[in-house]
Amino acid sequence: MRLWLIAAVVCLSAATGMAQDKDADGSKDHPMFSRMPGYYIEEYDAQDFSSVEFDTDPPRRVEGRLWKITYWLKEGSRKFGPVQIARNYTDLMVTRGGKKLYDNVDSSGGSTVAQMPISGKNIYLQVYVSNAGEVYDLTVVEEAGMEQKVEFSAMELAKALNDNGSVALHNILFDTGKATLKPESAAALAPVGELLKNDAALTLEIQGHTDNVGQAAANLTLSRNRAAAVKTYLVQTFGIPTARLTTAGFGDTKPVAPNTAETGRAQNRRVELVKK
Known about the structure:
Layout: H1 2-20, E1 39-54, E2 60-73, H2 82-95, E3 99-106, E4 109-118, E5 121-130, E6 135-143, H3 154-164, E7 166-169, H4 186-198, E8 204-209, H5 216-238, E9 245-249, H6 262-268, E10 270-275
Helix pairs in contact: 3-4, 4-5
């Protein structure tokens, strides 16, 4: 009887250890970074948009798409040292055109931060190693502006226009470098059409604005064409008389945020409605 109990306990312990060595449900490695051999994912979080303060000196806050992944050493696997783990990641980014922003890792642990440009955006990576290499965290942020999900209602648009004389819409989306409206823009334009139909006396100027990526002359033309595309959509979809809508484009000449980061550029890419 005693032997049977001991055997059962051993089997249960082994099964528990194996279960703990499995990746957390729904978790996966970041698309750009694999894991160190012999580690599994203990915790995983991915968010479409977040704000993270990295351990640089001074601290740097970055907004965009977030991944946070915690890796633990599997039972019986070879442990890597903190410096080796950290450099495996930061050296990879440096060889691909990135740079190390911060490094404070020794044999017990610590953190390091690197940045790398890719496809016109910046990727930030922080590696935090603890327990002398048994555990490490990856925090990855792909710099990006927030995608607007909540829209003005027709009533809110009317109030903003009456109070301020204008309103900026950031969720009217176009194909890159073109004046072709994306289908998802319909949700942002629906309350504009409703407002114009409910208030037959209302006239608007539709203004297009871009970020500063590309040539200034091309951006000016693009902003004018995008404003015209919005007017055409409102006329064709809601039957608004063309005389009630005028258009203008200002290219990148009227930024509302710095163009030095994607978050600012996203704010500058906008359509403004101005009450006439």
